[in-house]
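Researcher: Quick one. two chains, 707 residues in total.
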Amino acid sequence: MSSGPARAGAASPRRAFRTPKVVLVTGVSRYLGAHVAARLATDRRIDRVIGVDRHPPSEDLGDAVEFIEVDLTTPESSKIISSNRVEAVVHLAVAADRHAERAAAKEQNVIGTLQLLASCQQAPDLRKIVIRSSTAAYGASFRDPAVFTEDTEPQETPRGGFARDVLDIEGYVRGFRRRRPDVAATVLRFAPFIGRLANTSLTRYFALPLVPTVLGRDPRLQFVHVDDALEILHRSVVEQHPGTFNVAGAGVITLSQAVRRAGRVAVPIMEGGLSAAAGMSRGALDFSLDQLDLFVHGRVVDTARLVREFGFTPRSTAAAFDDFLAGTGSGGILPREAVALAELGILAGIRAARSALRGRA
Amino acid sequence: MSEQFDAGVAVDRTRAAHPPVARPPRLRAVPADGANPMAPPVDPPAIAEPEPPVDVWDRRVASALAFLRNRLTGDYQVDEFGFDQELTDGVFLPLLRRLYRDWFRVEVQGAENLPASGSALVVANHSGVIALDALMLSVAVHDEHPAHRYLRLLGADLVFRMPLISELARKHGSTLACNPDAERLLGSGELVGVFPEGFKGVGKLYRDRYKLQRFGRGGFVSAALRTGTPIIPASIVGAEETYPMLGNIKPLARLLGIPYFPVTPTFPWLGPLGLIPLPSKWLIAFGEPIETAGYGDQADDPAVVFNLADQVRETIQQTLHGLLAQRDAGEAEPAVDAEPGDGTGA
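Model:
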């Protein structure tokens, strides 16, 4: 039960809170990490933002973020944290990767987190840690309730590699909370990201003209807009919100609905065939078991705790998806306007036919 | 999709014998057969039709097309359990209503016991091999209740394991029978329908008809207690005879991973024809609500839970006997309800 340690940890760090002066952000070579670091750097309450990753950042982080190239799977991070007197760590180097890089991704996710938490445990100045997790932590089972709260335990271990990583990571964080009750730990379970600029396997999927889906399954999906995720991450650092939180847009859209709204056409495929197809045509279609689990079972979370604690309501799933569609520009092969036009055409045709018939009668 | 939907729109009161599809070329035939007493003054005198807005068929075609457009562009709402109200109103209910009115000729008593607003837990007996009784109960609640409320059914995990069926069930408003879902639905003021007998009820033999099976662990009672929701016992007579189950081929059931493999007079002998339910006469009675407001802290007390579960079970069993006697008496007279029950247009 994740809430137990979370609440226990909540009591002590909350009383004497001040904004951390030095913040370390991991995973800054990726979109989310880069934007969180840049955003924190503009916050005047924070003196220094240090960004780390094992690759140099793909986009310019700006002058305000100090970049250090570190492989998190080594104990190097320990030196950086202690020598810079880091007070808050934002761990975003947790990511789902494509099939081919699975082993490397697992190494980064699991060993990287383990090493980072070990470094954090020995850092006397550290007062806060924020971890990126995922709603994949709830697993995928037919015996799952329709809506997950933060206290729902997974019924079955998920098939997907990323989901397993997430479960491992949350386990390490629980251990960390026990050993360092003075450090406020915030675990954010994000729904899949979406938005105008997001480029994830899911957004690439919805950009396909014909979208493969699982035959006989229409999962309920939830997304979180990237901008809202940034806001939540920012608040997690400059405010005090220990605990585990679901981060998602309220409401639900089903996969078929999302495909239709995107003007795409769904191609239902047998579940077995889909994983085989995904394995063969990787590259064009990076489809992992994580995604397959999502597309069979769907995933909906309760965000009441987030909204209560952060005083911030992420835009709804439908609104986030609309924003993503607005960003992609093209209306797909079945655009809304064409359908509306066809409707008017058919209606006019039927009316004309009817009045002709009636005229004859 | 399209003919499904046409059924939805056209079903209001064309006669059962009529195919539900009524495309424009057929239009003149519909008023001409005089089945609809309201139609003749409007249509046959071809002079009185210059105004398209009052033309009922024009409206139906237009709304059918608008519905199709909404479906095609994903322009509809689904709640967090997957309930699709537009699809339920436009497709599921009209199709089920056919079965409800014309095939099973369902009669409902005690609909006033269902609350006009707020949550209630409808607990019913379960029978009939496939869960037709659950679907008919949802039609009864929607159609006979003045507020036309939707009954949110709780289903076994087998339902949600099966492709297609699982999605139809979710769109119809069902969800998994588990306490978190039940409490979430009740907490948001929904009418929830549950069948505590589960597979023991639907999979029992014909000779055990109308004998209520064990009520599981009483999880439904604790959900009601925790949310302070009244329990409404519902008794369904008629579903037992739809598929009289004479035997159960257990090895085959194990092989297929299903709880039972039914043998009825028609199944599996007649193949798919055996899937047609026998047209039994149905009675559904909603009993008086059993209040649970004072018990909130006793939701985990097995004694309280089992007592309440027993009380509900007894009520349903007694009512079943009463309804059976009533139906036998009613059927002694010649079929009375063929015409009078017909004229509604909902």
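DSSP finds 13 helices and 13 strands in chain A.
Researcher: Thanks, that's what I needed.
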